[in-house]
Amino acid sequence: MSERVRRSAREVVERGHEVVISTGRSLGAALPIVRELGIDHGYVVASNGGVLAKITGEDVDVFHREVFDPSLALAALWRSLPNAKYALENERGEFLSSDVFTDASFGAESQVVDFEELVNSKAVRVVVFSTDATAEDFGHAVQGLGLSGVTYSVGWTAWLDIAAEGTTKASGLERLRAILKFNTADTLAVGDGRNDIEMLQWAGLGVAMGQAPDEVKDVADAITDGVDDDGLAVVLEELLQR
């Protein structure tokens, strides 16, 4: 992140606002961002709402995991995308993969296992990455499968995130909102990905980044500048002036 974004976010934290990193990344990949923003007491929504953790100083307590059976979704995907790479985050926070497949969003090295072991595992998050399709072609292929019993979102590339049915960044944030007893009207969310759509709809004020796809902008209450123009800082600086 740029220095302007870092500075404005830290000031929001210091003012006493409840700042929550809500991400498709695993908890291990989200924590460095939490630390960089100076959040030493608060919460994290990771794995697209599948994992909720409380931060107290250096202690991290995972108090909720939304676990599901990925077998039917994996079987359907394998039939249509046999050359894709598959990985899942299990109920212990470990990553298992069908091939050498480690991404920065995992926050951990993946362990290569047989595809059958993936199918028989419980999951918090499933990731599918295709090396031979564009994001658009990949998205159309996935939509044509009619996946049921899960929630999924297609990323910027030929990348698919799958979670338990009804599990999104929004569902994780709503669980936290109930714990913290905030009114929804007092919430602000900023995002740029397709996995942010439910979150932007949920928030009292949902802001899409300037580089977001049209379907993300369409559900937002407002649109800020792109990431290269510090669009997040623009939003946070306006918040600080209130």
Automatic annotation (TrEMBL):
It comes from the Bacteria. This is Cof subfamily protein (Haloacid dehalogenase superfamily). It comes from Glutamicibacter protophormiae.
